[in-house]
Write a structure and sequence with these properties.
about 220 residues, eleven-stranded mixed beta sheet, 3 helices, about 10% helix, globular, disordered N terminus, signal, TTHA0802/YceI-like_sf, Lipid/polyisoprenoid-bd_YceI, YceI family protein
Length: about 220
């Protein structure tokens, strides 16, 4: 039987997101064809790239945050523009920042272990998540309202979590130079879209006490 007390703490922190700053609502659709790699290849610098997450109980209570590590990644650039790319996320690297767990009877390690078990990401079975770019286009001014400062592109790609793949689109700040590419973004996803549900139904307190919106933050640096 699932422990409701732990779930109200654990399930609040379901994915990678940034602490602070604006985040835009992510457009979600069916899986789409991955963009063909063309141009020069830029390899993601794993040491300087990061994925952060932040989430809440409903009502904005008990925020939890932490990090995930990229396992590999590559971006393609042609004529000064990112044309394609893919990233592999190491789900076993999921960390909970101890500063986000302030209750005396809670431990960051307990939350971390719970998020890794079959109730959530089941990292022993699904050790990797991945994101594969399907398109990169100029950002429409109307879409920049809640985007990260300096956002100039809309990035779309197939995000795979556990055994589910959906296409997401979000504003990003993309900077391309001769030797380096930087991609930064902050956006929000609905965990339930990927079937990540802890409660047995919508009426289950383990589910309705937990916000489905998860803030995500990425900072990727890639070098030629």
């Amino acid at each position: 039987m699932k422990k409701i007390g732990l779930s109200l703490v654990a399930a609040a922190a379901i994915l990678f997101a940034s602490c602070g700053g604006n985040s835009s609502k992510t457009a979600v659709s069916e899986e789409q064809q991955v963009a063909e790699k063309q141009g020069d290849a830029y390899t993601v610098d794993l040491a300087s790239s990061k994925v952060d997450w932040k989430a809440f109980h409903k009502g904005g209570f008990a925020p939890r945050w932490g990090t995930l590590s990229l396992q590999s990644g590559e971006l393609s650039v042609a004529d000064g523009n990112v044309t394609a790319g893919d990233f592999v996320i190491d789900m076993k690297s999921l960390k909970v920042d101890s500063a986000s767990v302030t209750e005396a009877d809670k431990k960051a390690s307990d939350l971390e272990n719970h998020l890794k078990n079959p109730d959530f990401f089941d990292v022993e079975k699904f050790a990797q998540a991945n994101f594969k770019i399907t398109s990169v286009s100029d950002l429409d001014a109307t879409a920049a309202k809640d985007a990260i400062e300096g956002a100039n592109k809309t990035v779309s790609g197939n995000l795979t979590l556990r055994d589910s793949t959906l296409n997401i689109s979000f504003p990003a700040k993309v900077t391309v130079t001769d030797q380096q590419v930087s991609v930064a973004a902050k956006f929000t996803v609905n965990r339930a879209d990927w079937g990540i549900k802890f409660g047995t139904s919508e009426a289950d307190p383990a589910e309705w006490m937990i916000s489905k919106d998860i803030e995500i933050g990425i900072q990727v640096e890639a070098k030629k």
